[in-house]
Amino acid sequence: MSDSLVTLLGQALLLALLLALPFLVAALVAGVVTGLLGALTQVQDAAVGLVVRIAAMAAVGVAFGPFMANKLTSFGHEVMAIVGRVAGGP
Hints:
Layout: H1 3-41, H2 46-87
Helix pairs in contact: 1-2
């Protein structure tokens, strides 16, 4: 594998982490908050936590959607440029 492909793989893994991190943090915060509220109020319904986590994920998707789309688009352009160079294109 050439150096550009190894670099591309590293960038892809970093981008995957960058795009997944807001969703993971939102799920963590929503889970902790609903767990604490459930413990305080003694409401142990699993659907409450699920609904809150889904709402948190949707909010993160709306808030960070343009940023994620921009990052993915720029990465796609970079991939196509590297593939063109590796394949011997212009």
